[in-house]
Predict the 3D structure of the following.
Amino acid sequence: MRPLFAIGLGVVATALVLEVVLQCLPVVSGLRMADSSSAVPFNRYLPGQPYVYSHGWALANARRGVTNAQGYNNSADFQEGAAVLVLGDSFVESLMLDYADTVQGKLDQVLGGKVYAAAGSGNGLADGLEMLRYYQPRLHPRTVLLFVDAGNLNGLLAPAQRGHSNFVVDGQAVSVAHNPYAESKVKRLVAHSALARYVYYNLKLSDWLLSKFQGGKPAGAAAAAPAGAREAALEFYLAQLRQAGGAATRIIFLVDGERNLLYEPGHAKPQWHGDNRAFFLERARRHGYAVADMQPVFAQHWALRRERMDFLPMDGHWNKVAHALAAQQVLPLLAADGPPPPGIAGN
């Protein structure tokens, strides 16, 4: 038993040393989520919450921030009469960027305020629809800018993770179901440990283990969908957006491109599955929505400047270059109903 005891004691001592060291480093703090329910059926954090962000084992791109009064990152506190409400996922949330470098920050600077962002990691199209239904009668935004990336279409019919919503297709009938979130006391307790947070958030050990057990299939992936389910879900989504926005709110889509294929043509795998990207663009335009398609913009920028628009291969989220390019594309669409706004600063 003595060798086993010595090994156990050594493991404990090593963990304690690592805990002390990591407490002094910018390990991801994690963000506590607010509980969700049928009354507030979407993902958001606790308001006024300070956080620390970093990426990977080397704690790259470390930064600090605070969520706003509604529990979102990189946004001013919401007020009624919004000029633009930006809805999206972690690309809009942008924990890895300063507010001034985000698309909402740049639009806010040009438009003179009242540009707000409600976004959370893992949000899909169903989440965006629920958020529009909730915030439109409270903020009465003139324009809603909806960010769409590959994951939103690839996971269109996937079951929702806790705190999120998903589409339910039953024949030709489509509805939205919410999977409520309630904070675990165990998770809150474990989050005090910098070592536990480093393993979970920075090393992403749980994601790696899941990928091994599932043979590379992402967690929450949808089973084979019935024929026509994708079309039915997207038609429902686009029609419901119009209804939720009302006549006074204009909806614009901001659609991500295939950036990794620009960097490594012939080698990188496409992010968008099959024809999902073209399918979404065609359907959105058919419904009369304005679209800022970033694919040709990114392709032209790469061809001219060979400047990356994300943090790949470390992190696929947009960097400040992509956000500046996106703001440049959105501004003329915002000006379609009024005098053109002044120009925006480049990247």
